[in-house]
Amino acid sequence: MRVGDVMHINLVTCSPDDSVSAAVQQMVTARVGCILAVGDDGRLAGVLSERDVLRLVAEDADMREARVGTAMTREVLTVEMDADLAWAAARMADGKIRHLPIVEDGHPAGIISMRDLLELSAEVLRLQGPAAASDVLRAAVGRPAATTAAGQR
């Protein structure tokens, strides 16, 4: 499966020149955890996430004065639409990244979130049945799978 198969295409974007206050209002209205900052050339310039906003709150910054471009994360992991979904999910988990922009030639084309991956995983596990879900949960907590007298799960 590819990230392009599951990405959201209704992107919430702003300019790096916008106030953080305006960007946060867009995030709240759209009920998303990040906003993509797009430059005048249409290319992804960075991402303003909930974490970035919390950092500003901790610094007691004036959100109306602070600009997205100074608060956003600039070094953003991105992938192309044909990237393998499992590979992308592993990169997100390894980097503790909650939102992964999908780009085409540097231009935002979509986004996936950890929540999207969790919902997709839950659906796969539901379809595979209780045994598969139990195996995943045991693996998550590092416990060996239970075996029967015949040595089978």
Total count of helical runs of at least 4 residues: 6
Would you identify the CATH architecture? Answer: Roll
Number of structural units classed as domains:
1
Radius of gyration: 19 Å
The low-confidence runs, each spanning 5 or more residues with pLDDT under 50, are none
Amount of helix: 40-55%
Looking at the structure, what is the overall shape? Answer: globular
Roughly what fraction of the amino acids lie in strands? 15-25%
The main pleated sheet reads as: 3 strands, mixed
Could you say what the CATH topology is called? CBS-domain
Structural class: alpha+beta
CATH superfamily: CBS-domain
Mean model confidence by pLDDT: 88
Q: Give a count of the beta strands, DSSP E runs of length 2 or more.
A: 5
CATH level-1 class: Alpha Beta
**Distance between the terminal alpha carbons, to the nearest Å?**
28 Å
Please give the order of strands in the largest beta sheet.
1-2-3
Written as H for each helix and E for each strand, in order along the chain, the element string is EHEEHHHEEHH
